[in-house]
């Protein structure tokens, strides 16, 4: 059975044809943001047209039904990663989710955080702003977080170990269960930045033993402006609110305010109602095309095909491990990644070029920038063939 057949088992249109934005175009920038399937677009249109009303406050029927949709999205998003609905806070995205933890978690006398050299700026800067000292775990030669080194570096001064579950540049997949065991061995908490993992592999926070898990809806075929922070219930119960306003309070007087329990305690103001509905549609869509196991297998096969093809083209440096998840970073030797991406754009191939919000990793790799091809459920071999034709063009232009 070919990969496409596995993916469309429950659908009448090919996976690719369900994406109206992908017509005569090779979109290889899903790690930046995923294109949206028609099912998600339809859900958003319906939520803003036929179904729209506020949530949690209205006593009228439409508001009650919108509230039910909003809460159904919370249940679906938490189930997707093996959590419970009361453990899932809606945020604007992974960035806000990590900021929430960094800002509210009591340090309890531990002022250090253990990160890695491959972290996205979203998992570096919030800790700096919250006043943590950072230690950064080195990477193995093929671009994995070196967990032996992490084990040796971790001390009882570390409050949190915060790692990317999948690297947005290298695609390396963390051994998350081992990371949790290491963190807990010194009484630290494990936060996983799941921004690139949730769209591309099955995640089970309970099996991992994670304490916090952050991800963004827009990378999972859903809308921008909605993301999730999952946290173990007993940890969330201890966190103070971080933003104040409507919806998060129990009782307000000028003298004193009391707060609702999580997750509402952390959702001040009118939330991104339609974003939540769109996210739910995205979670459902992932299930309809076969689930994250199938998407993961599909993307792994594309990564292997891409790495082989780039090796055959020659004069291309490929970064990251062979078994990376859906992401391949590379440079055509002697050519700046921006030039490569510009020429690829001329032939209808969209890749990202730059530091990918991971400047420490660029320094670690000894480069200013890389070009990055990243896949999604709709990607296929025609994208890789177009990428290779484009790279041959880059080599011709630069006489490589
Ligand atoms: C690994 C990783 N972490 C965090 C983020 C930040 O996500 P957002 O901008 O959706 O908050 C990204 C986005 O590129 C990412 O790839």
Task: Compose a concise summary of this entry.
By secondary structure, the chain is α/β, with parallel strands linked by helices.
Tell me the β content: 15-25%
Counting DSSP E segments of at least 2 residues, the number of strands comes to 15
Q: Largest sheet at a glance? A: 7 strands, mixed
Supply the helix-strand structural class. Answer: alpha/beta
Give the overall silhouette.
globular
Strand order of the largest sheet: 2-8-7-6-5-3-4
Q: Level of helix content?
A: 25-40%
Radius of gyration: 22 Å
Q: Could you say which small molecules are bound to this protein?
A: pyridoxal-5'-phosphate
What can you tell me about this protein's structure?
The structure is a single chain. The radius of gyration is 22 Å and the shape is globular. Strand 9 (249-252) and strand 10 (257-259) form a beta hairpin. The mean pLDDT is 96. The chain has helices at 3-7, 38-48, 61-80, 94-104, 125-129, 147-153, 176-185, 205-208, 233-238, 273-288, 292-313, 337-346, 359-365, 381-397; strands spanning 26-27, 88-91, 112-116, 133-137, 158-164, 189-193, 212-216, 227-231, 249-252, 257-259, 316-319, 327-332, 349-350, 352-354, 370-374. 38% of the residues lie in helices and 16% in strands. It has 400 residues and is an alpha/beta fold. It binds pyridoxal-5'-phosphate. Pyridoxal-5'-phosphate (PLP) is lined by residues 93-95, 120, 122-123, 164, 168, 193, 195-196, 216, 357.
